[in-house]
Specification:
It contains 13 helices and 12 strands. The strands form 3 sheets. A 5-stranded mixed beta sheet has the order 5-6-1-7-8. Strands 9-12-10-11 form a 4-stranded antiparallel beta sheet, with helices on one face. Strands 3-2-4 form a 3-stranded mixed beta sheet. The protein is globular. The structure holds a DNA duplex.
DNA sequence: TCTGGGGTCCTAGGACCC
DNA sequence: TCTGGGGTCCTAGGACCC
């Protein structure tokens, strides 16, 4: 009776871990930080802060979530579900400032730091005790900003990211191949990072309801249904496999855009044309400030009630010149033949690579 | 309950070329 | 006339995430 080699059971001396740090109810927490009298009250941040207008919830505090208010919910609905909530406008500059302090704190650790957004980052760390590192991260962020966060620990970014959701709020959770199926095997596929409602529905139609089902599926069969890259990737996702590196290099944006939902639909297409020109000049200003020439300009039109169309124009040569970008946006707009009432307009500049 | 704004990446289909 | 197969690029749109 030889049994298994013991080496396979033993952890290497120095192990690589991925930690995912996610601030708890970040936007609402920043608002409470500068208005302490709001602590403990339902706070809803979104749009212009007026729950009678068009807009959706960006973040709700846990007190508001208890009333069924969550991100993406129309503000009007949020007001109906939680009339006593405090409604605040989105103040991107304030969140960016706090975010910078959070990320600077994380860069103080001996780790590669990949920033994901205002309130999230991955850290690649070495060591045998990632929980201790996680608790130090939580303590230092609290000391530096007064904010709470949750830390997920995994062998890769996928595991760490999902671990965070299991540790929230204000916790630390470790998710590896050892407990992956125990924790996630019976959950619906949209529990995974990258599978949303649409893909989950298509998977159910193929007889795949849970993470466990998907992990056992045939990658070739899914390639037929979901495409040659996406199909096999879905199976790897369900198995908790992910080899993407934690990338500390600063992100170089591929595009920059501006879009606006109008409080009242635009019915006169002279207004539409003027608004597209405005958006194009704003985008051009940002492209020029970042010294990024645009190679293509795409205009988005959302007709009332909600049908969305895009049309683009490739520039003869990449440019950050406002007049050229505005011209291209108006040329793209001219390709829209339907002159129905418009709910939203957007202009996006795609940068030369 | 009428559905934001900022992005990224992938796919399908047509054009074009050999 | 009736005409294969493959590669690559471009465009529009879908899906997803924060």
């Amino acid at each position: 009776m030889g049994g298994r080699p013991r080496r396979a059971e033993r952890e290497p001396v120095m192990t690589r871990w991925v930690l995912h740090v996610d601030l708890d109810q970040f936007i609402a927490a920043v608002e409470v930080l500068r208005r302490p009298e709001l602590r403990g009250r339902p706070v809803v941040v979104g749009g212009d802060g007026d729950p009678t207008e068009r807009g959706v919830v960006a973040t709700a505090s846990y007190e508001a979530r208890a009333h069924g208010v969550h991100s993406g919910l129309p503000l009007r609905t949020a007001a109906r579900r939680c009339p006593e909530a405090v409604f605040l406008p989105v103040d991107a500059d304030a969140y960016r400032a706090v975010s910078s302090r959070v990320m600077a704190t994380l860069r103080g650790f001996d780790a590669v730091v990949e920033v994901l957004g205002w309130d999230e980052a991955f850290l690649a760390v070495a060591g045998d005790d990632p929980e201790t590192t996680a608790r130090r991260i939580r303590a230092r962020i609290r000391a530096a900003t007064g904010l709470e966060c949750t830390v997920g620990i995994g062998r890769n970014k996928l595991q760490a990211k999902l671990a965070t959701g299991l540790g929230k709020p204000t916790g630390v959770f470790r998710l590896t191949h050892r407990n992956w199926f125990e924790v996630l095997g019976g959950r619906p596929t949209d529990a995974l990072w990258g599978i949303g409602a649409k893909t989950a529905r298509r998977l159910r139609a193929a007889g795949i309801a849970t993470v466990g089902d998907l992990a056992a599926a045939d990658p070739r069969a899914l390639a037929e249904r979901f495409g040659p890259a996406t199909g096999p990737w879905l199976v790897r996702l369900a198995q908790g496999r992910d080899h993407s590196p934690v990338d500390g290099a600063p992100r170089v944006p591929r595009s920059r855009g501006r879009e606006t939902t109008y409080q009242r639909d635009l019915r006169d297409w002279r207004d539409v044309r003027r608004e597209v020109a405005n958006l194009a000049r704003q985008v051009a200003g940002e492209a020029a400030a970042e010294r990024r020439p645009a190679a293509r300009v795409v205009v988005k039109v959302r007709y009332a009630p909600f049908a969305t169309r895009t049309r683009g124009r490739t520039l003869e040569a990449p440019t950050a010149e406002a007049a050229r970008i505005e011209e291209a946006a108006l040329a793209a707009l001219d390709r829209f033949t339907e002159r129905r009432p418009v709910r939203l307009l957007g202009v996006r500049a795609e940068f030369a690579r």
